[in-house]
Amino acid sequence: MDNKTAIGIAVVAAAVAVIVPLAVIAVTQNNAAPAGEDAAAGNQKVIKVIASFFPLYDFVRNVGGDRVEVTSMIPAGAEPHDWEPTIRQVADASSADIFVYNGASFGSWAQNIETKFVVNTSEGLKLLEATDGEEHEGKVGEEEEEHSDIDPHIWLDPIYAKHQVGLIRDGLAKIDPDNAQYYNDNADRFMAKLDKLDASIRSELSGCEKKDFIAFHSAFSYFANRYGLNQHSVYRGLPEGEVPPQRLQEIVDLAKELKIDTIYSEELVDPRLAEAIAEEIPGGRVLMLSPIEGLEKEEQAAGLGYIDKMEQNLDNLKAGLDCRSRQQ
What we know:
Layout: H1 3-15, E1 47-51, H2 54-64, E2 68-72, H3 87-94, E3 98-101, E4 118-120, E5 126-131, E6 134-140, E7 150-151, H4 158-175, H5 180-204, E8 212-217, H6 221-227, E9 230-235, H7 245-257, E10 262-265, H8 272-278, E11 285-288, H9 297-301, H10 306-320
Parallel strand pairs: 1-2, 1-3, 3-4, 8-9, 10-11
Antiparallel strand pairs: 5-6, 5-7
Helix pairs in contact: 1-7, 2-4, 2-5, 4-5, 5-10
């Protein structure tokens, strides 16, 4: 790529705010019981749960069923990395029966929510430390929350997601022991779906020509570690600010070296930067690889869940990694 092209890409990067301006008006997300899992009839108190963002909202919805009223603090369509709650949203969260959050340095505001019962779903997990695009093993548990360089994207590993679901189950059972078996049964069913997802990913990615992929930002370290892939990213950290021209050149050169023809974008960012990079590589194209940090409003309205999004990611990864179709 010559200097003129590099400057052109840099202009694209500077001309667009990579993170699309998004409304941050809170949207209440009504929960629904998992299909076929109606709780016993009666006028029992419904547990009010506030989840910090979409994946945990979906996990609570599946575990809590019709025994919970769950909402997500971060509304559909909002990019969560730079989102901050309003005073009213903090007050609403503080009045909930349970507040469920990711931990692992994702959303520092979440650590300041004070309510009756708090579930930190990263507690007990071995976390990764992200520094200048390279990941290293971090400490374990709540100590990590004070470190801003901890990779928070634990939910993108289905096995770690099972751990999060288990902590949510335990939290609901503690605050509502009369329905502990109900939560346990729902959690078992959802964990079985996560096991099936894990098995599908292992199977479908086992016959791929490539192991390297270029994500929009470095959200897939846990996923890549789990499934033997090599993550590279346009943004080495959070998807904020401008990408310097030298970094764009590095990505183009890397893609050519590794014969990568796919640049992955995300649903909550402007795709034009990824498109500009793709134009500079042979056969370049842009596909979606969602960090599932939030959904677009249309996706939320359509009822898409965590597993739906992970299956979409798998399909797009198979395309980018040149995976052979497996005979069933």
